[in-house]
């Protein structure tokens, strides 16, 4: 018998029990919510909301025009409607909370609040408890879509899935549920692009629904041993979901006694692991990272934090050191297959350990800047134009201090020498990408260097605060950071609009050309390596040569993130993508946004595109009939959306550019299909 919900004192707009005729057509409960119960903002007052519970357990939340409030004649249509209705401004909100939460000024005894309580009473309590129990301050699970996925199941299957979620929350939740960062009540997803969800494999679903060997199914799905699945750590909800496979591989590679036991222990590791200056993307890479952490990673993190109190910054700074070490290796030559900077960090860490890598980075950062090599002769006017950039704001002052824009290579180099950090290494980013550095002086006497990156594709183009460091890369004080925030606002003020547009146009124009065909900026100055670091570099390269798999006869390689993933069907395939999976490159010369567009397909699914800033050479190779190969190089949903998936594009050895200095070797995990040749599409 259906529960009859009565709320005598509630207004008709707030009533939960639908009319009998509507109940007979599968609508169990509904709740109309006016805008002023949820929002104060003026833009929301044009809408009304409907929470609607069907008899089969499915929950639907709709945002409608304000005039639709209380239109019960639409309940049946909206209960069973599968898509949005843009013409009538009617949108389904899959990420809305399962029950509306009135704003704080609506008291607990208000009719609206009591109506929400009555609506909640009609929901499945076990499902609500399970979803709420998964939340630990990270992903938001209590949305309408997640509730519906579980509530519509048969009682037996629902019980099994709730049990699996309770037993292994971090391993099962990303496979059965959406993992959004927050609820969304105001802005609907686009009509053809609902929120992404990870989906369990048939083997995992069968193990859950039939009560079979779930530990084994999860171990096979995630690519780890049963021991990792049985860890106490896997019995607790995690803040960070979905879990990157490489983290599970690392846990598997560590000795059993060295693995963190609780989610709190893992959180202490996680921020450091994100910043470790290596690029690891396969099971064998995780073995190298585990080797670099030593027999007692927890003790290592403690020792590192004691030596480098701002450990996250020290790890981040090591990337600059590795790029410099890679440049030295390129100049010296003699290595047939040279790792890139991220792979060099992986080899350095595996050979010498993370502590020695950070120590080498610290020594390098404290070494004075020298010129890497003399620039090639070029016309005086070209050299002058590339030795200085157009100022965006010049000198700027506020109540907190003042800032001086560094618009010449000499000024940037002098700042790096004075502050004993590596700002000078970023001159090419200033010349090519519109990046800007500022010398900051606070009223309290503190000094720092701040950098800002130009988003040339935004409309209008905007500067974003990138970093702010004091002497010897020390963190900036609170006053300096507040000054940098004010400077960011000044850089994006209306007065700088014309300059930002000119710089953005120049950046976009540069991206459409090959750098080999246009004048190069003065090479970035770098620091030399000391004798100990030179020896360690040799050892890391030797370790790489001895242990890295041989390349499949390929020459030049390009590693890049997949652009536009969030707007393509590939966003639904993250759980099934694997390192080493072949992808196909397809030219789109008639693309209205970019005539050099190169689409990336995984089977019959479009993942996205090669980013504009690096697609020229790939497009030219495909147009010329060069048999490029391409494959997935990394899948990490924990990274920002534009970095979820990375691929490698490889040219045949015979077409490698003359003088190419660096090639990347990719680890293909066992069981994956080897990268296959790509048949180029002619325009």
Count of alpha/pi helices:
24
Give the strand line-up of the largest sheet.
5-6-7-8-9
Give the CA-based shape: globular
Strand segment tally: 15
Biggest sheet descriptor: 5 strands, antiparallel
Distance between the termini: 64 Å
pLDDT average, as an integer? 82
The percentage helix is 25-40%
Tell me the β content: 5-15%
Structural class: alpha+beta
Which spans of ≥5 residues are poorly predicted at pLDDT below 50?
1-13, 191-196, 372-385, 514-523, 656-683
The Cα radius of gyration reads 28 Å
InterPro entries: HIRAN
Domain HIRAN: 555-651
Pfam families: HIRAN (PF08797)
Keywords: Hydrolase, Metal-binding
Can you tell me about this structure?
With about 675 residues, the protein is an alpha+beta fold. Among the domains are: about 25-120, no CATH class; about 245-365, no CATH class; about 395-515, no CATH class; about 550-650, Alpha-Beta Plaits, CATH 3.30.70.2330. The protein contains 24 helices and 15 strands. The protein has a five-stranded antiparallel sheet with strand order 5-6-7-8-9. The protein has a four-stranded antiparallel sheet with strand order 1-2-3-4. Strand 2 and strand 3 form a beta hairpin. Helix 11 crosses helix 13, helix 15 packs across helix 16 and helix 16 (about 340-350) packs across helix 17 (about 355-365). The termini are far apart.
């Amino acid at each position: 018998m259906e529960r009859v919900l009565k709320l005598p004192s509630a207004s008709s707009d707030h009533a939960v029990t639908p009319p009998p005729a509507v109940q007979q057509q599968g609508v169990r409960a509904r709740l109309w919510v006016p805008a002023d119960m949820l929002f104060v903002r003026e833009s929301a007052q044009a809408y009304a909301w409907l929470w609607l519970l069907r008899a089969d357990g499915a929950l639907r939340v709709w945002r409608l025009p304000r005039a639709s409030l209380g239109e019960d004649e639409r309940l049946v249509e909206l209960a069973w409607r599968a898509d949005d209705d843009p013409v009538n401004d009617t949108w389904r909100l899959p990420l809305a909370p399962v029950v509306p939460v009135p704003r704080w000024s609506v008291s607990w005894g208000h009719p609206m609040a009591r109506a929400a309580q009555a609506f909640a009473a009609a929901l499945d309590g076990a499902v609500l408890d399970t979803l709420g129990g998964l939340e630990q301050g990270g992903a938001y699970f209590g949305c309408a879509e997640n509730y519906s996925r579980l509530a519509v199941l048969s009682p037996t299957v629902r019980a099994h899935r709730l049990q699996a979620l309770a037993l292994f929350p971090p391993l099962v939740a990303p496979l059965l549920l959406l993992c959004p960062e927050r609820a969304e009540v105001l802005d609907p997803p686009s009509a053809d692009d609902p929120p992404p969800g990870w989906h369990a494999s048939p083997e995992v679903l069968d193990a859950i629904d039939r009560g079979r060997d779930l530990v084994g199914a999860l171990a096979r799905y995630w690519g780890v041993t049963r021991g990792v699945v049985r860890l106490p750590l896997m019995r607790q909800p995690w803040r960070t979901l979905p879990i990157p496979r490489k983290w599970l591989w690392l846990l598997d590679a560590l000795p059993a006694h060295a693995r963190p036991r609780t989610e709190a222990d893992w959180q202490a590791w996680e921020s450091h692991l994100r910043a470790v200056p290596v690029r690891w993307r396969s099971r064998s890479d995780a073995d190298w990272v585990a080797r670099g952490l030593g027999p007692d990673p927890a003790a290592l993190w403690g020792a590192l934090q004691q030596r480098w109190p701002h450990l996250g910054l020290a790890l981040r700074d090591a990337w600059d050191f590795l790029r410099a070490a890679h440049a030295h290796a390129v100049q010296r030559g003699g290595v047939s297959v040279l790792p890139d900077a991220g792979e060099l960090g992986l080899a350095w860490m595996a050979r010498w350990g993370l502590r020695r890598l950070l120590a080498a980075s610290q020594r390098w950062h404290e070494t004075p800047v020298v010129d890497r090599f003399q620039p090639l002769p070029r016309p005086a006017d070209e050299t002058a134009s590339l030795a200085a950039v157009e100022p965006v704001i010049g000198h700027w002052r506020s109540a907190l201090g003042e800032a001086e824009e560094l618009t010449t290579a000499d000024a940037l180099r002098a700042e790096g020498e004075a502050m004993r950090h590596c700002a000078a290494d970023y001159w090419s980013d200033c010349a090519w990408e519109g990046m800007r550095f500022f010398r900051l002086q606070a009223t309290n006497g503190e000094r720092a260097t701040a950098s800002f990156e130009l988003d040339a594709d935004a409309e209008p183009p905007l500067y974003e605060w990138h970093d702010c460091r004091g002497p010897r890369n020390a963190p900036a004080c609170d006053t300096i950071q507040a000054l940098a925030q004010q400077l960011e606002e000044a850089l994006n003020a209306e007065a700088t609009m014309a300059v930002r547009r000119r710089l953005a146009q120049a950046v976009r124009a540069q991206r459409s050309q090959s750098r080999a065909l246009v004048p190069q900026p003065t090479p970035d100055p770098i620091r030399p390596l000391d004798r100990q670091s030179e020896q360690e570099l040799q050892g890391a390269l030797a370790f790489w040569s001895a242990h890295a798999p041989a390349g499949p006869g390929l020459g030049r390689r390009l590693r890049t993130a997949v652009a536009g993933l969030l707007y393509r069907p590939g966003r639904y395939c993250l759980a099934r993508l694997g390192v080493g999976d072949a992808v196909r490159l397809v030219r789109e010369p008639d693309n209205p946004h970019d005539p050099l567009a190169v689409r990336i397909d995984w089977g019959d699914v479009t993942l996205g595109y090669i980013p504009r800033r690096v697609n020229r050479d790939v497009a030219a190779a495909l147009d010329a009939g060069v048999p490029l190969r391409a494959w997935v190089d990394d899948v990490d949903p924990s990274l920002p959306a534009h970095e979820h998936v990375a691929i490698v594009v490889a040219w045949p050895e015979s077409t490698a550019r003359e003088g190419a200095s660096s090639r990347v070797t990719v680890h293909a995990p066992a069981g994956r299909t080897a990268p296959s040749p790509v048949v180029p599409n002619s325009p």
